[in-house]
Write a structure and sequence with these properties.
Helix 8 links the parallel strand 12 and strand 13. Residues about 675-685 and about 700-710 have low confidence and may be disordered. The chain has three domains: about 15-130, Chitobiase, domain 2 (2-Layer Sandwich); about 140-490, Glycosidases (TIM Barrel), CATH 3.20.20; about 505-710, Alpha-d-glucuronidase, C-terminal Domain (Alpha-Beta Complex), CATH 3.90.1330. It has an eight-stranded parallel β-barrel. The chain has a six-stranded mixed beta sheet with strand order 2-1-3-5-4-6, with helices on one face. The chain has a two-stranded antiparallel sheet with strand order 8-9. The radius of gyration is 26 Å and the shape is globular. The two termini are about 15 Å apart. The relative contact order is 0.08. The chain is an alpha/beta fold. It contains 22 helices and 18 strands. Helix content is about 40%, strand content about 10%. The structure holds alpha-D-glucopyranuronic acid. Alpha-D-glucopyranuronic acid (GCU) binds near residues 158, 199, 280, 363 and 391.
Length: about 700
Amino acid sequence: MSFQEFPSDESGYEAWLRYPLVEDAGRRAAMASLRCVSCRVDGPCVASALSEWARAMDGFLGETAALLPGGEDEAGVRFAVDTVLQEEGYRLFHDGSLNIVGGSGRGLLYGTCAALRALSLGTDPASLEEESSPAIPLRMLNHWDNPVEDPVMGSIERVWGGKTIFDWTDLSRPNPRYRDYARMLASLGLNGLCINNVNATPEILSPSMLPGLQALAGIFRAWGVRFYLSVDFASPVDLGGLPTADPLDDRVLQWWRDKVAEIYAAIPDFGGFVVKADSEGRPGPGDYGRSHIEGSRCIARALAPFGGTLFWRAFVYGRDISKRTPHERAAQDRANHASYEFMQLDGQFDDNVILQIKRSATDFQIWEPPHALFGKMPRTRLCLEFDLAHEYTGYDVHLAWEGPYLAHVLNFDMAPESGGGRIADIVAGRTGRGLPGAVTAVANTNSARNWFGHLLSGAGLYAHGRLAWDSALTPETISREYAHLLFRKKAAETVASLLDRSYDTCARYMSPYGLGFLYENVHHFDPDPWSNRATAGITEDGLGRDRTQKTGSGYTALFPRGHADIFADPARCPARHLLYFHHLPWHHSMPDERTLIQSIYDGCYAGVEEVRAFRETWRGLHGLIDLERWAHVYEKLALQADHAERWRDLLCRFFLEVSGVPDEHGRFDHSSPSPHARVRSGFGQAVEDYRARVQRMRARIGARRDDGAAYL
Ligand code: GCU
């Protein structure tokens, strides 16, 4: 390969908005006229659409490709708005010129981004023909950023790849990253951003924050993204100095009204609040003997006159249920809690309240089944909350692309008999009382130059946005789109197939057969099965949680019949949920006649081999990808292989110790180094271990970073 052919280095900062130079002369000629634009409309989103178009033409056609204003007839591309289309929808068609028509300025922006995506993927402008609009009206991201760095969780809860991208000491200080982030969100059609941790600090509502929030909201507004804030239920006490946050107290109600009015005076299109109440030690209405309805109403009614929305989180599981009915007490399983807490409240929330439900009931475990509560609240607006932060999939070290799982949850049918209850349809408001809801995800965006820490973690955000817009897209389509947008054609298929397999691979050694919570307790990065034996349901006779109705906690029965029967039957239960729903003996016979424990041993070993194979596959991409991005991912995969081994060794040794069942292949035995010595769980230890490992790895392979051959 000649020097010229070697792709030039990229940091990953451009993510999927790279707009690389079009080298093929025929394609360049077909695109040349696209520099000449006509635009009959204006507004902030239209201006953003035009600026993105100009930026893309610069990239595709070369530095000098400035836009030329043109009349209707001579323009190569016409931008227009037609209110016949849905507000956020767009239509692309070619009639000698390319037409980008939006239902509004925002629709036009989305149409522009769709056209640029197609052009980036090599589509001939003359064949662009598409009409599209999103089914789910609110498509959001939740940042878990901490305005003041937390001593345990750091700058962003659950994100280690970098720090918060927001300069919380002065949010109004100009930073080009903000605009570039807004561009990324717009390119995916995401229209809402909640910028701070659900474990909110009351100070987020202090008047001194407002000018900064106002400035930031203005930047994102131009890209169609509305701002939301997470707030602490006890803010009237902590910030307002009131003696109570009781949602029925007039002073509290007035405090929220005043606070909301103050925000809207500065940010007229403010989206609303997200509240985590009565959950994991957070204050909530329960502290005052009030219900979720009363608690949410107090804040929602302050927001309502301004058109604001309240996202009330359903991640509630710690409440004392000892005074409840015997049936509820039997359900002392976290998987059941939110359902028992909320399903009785269906239909009672105010119209501007959206119940925000995690994609799965116990937490963000790898292949947890979709949350049964989605099928239980037909008269309530619902929001589906995903996690892109990799809290339980190895943070920014492991490649575990969640695309297949996101698509699985969105397409999971809560009315399997009629086929009319996909979770995507429920949150879109196409079922039940037809109340439109939302889809959101905990973001992994951070201050790393490539935005995510692990470059390929961007594929998670990409999948979230694409599926939020169109849940019918297949994961394979999305991974290919993403890979082609990031890399040259020759590398893209290989990258896409790595992404496709990566989630299942990670599950093999972190969560075999859906066994959850094998993590060290604070940071959820390293394995520590010893501390979590009970949560994972590991006993001397077997492993897994019995959640069947007959003999266990009964979570299976909260699903509609078709699913409930399958989940409750170990012979039919999907393998990836087997130990989530069943406690099975170590010697349980698997379909291939191996014992369960032997399958787990084998799976852990196979998982590590798969990661090593990923690393070798990536090595083979050397020269097809610029050195900077190639070396970055190679280093991550090398770290992952190292850490996957650690998972394998600890889990296998642990299972051997508890079960007493040796590995048929003799790969380890009781004389293997005691894994206890390697687990030093607790406060901050995992972070330190991780950092030290990164240092060691860097020292080993990073010293020769400038020379890509050193990695081979
Ligand atoms: C998990 C996570 C916490 C987070 C919580 C939530 O428990 O570990 O960091 O605050 O979910 O979603 O509220």
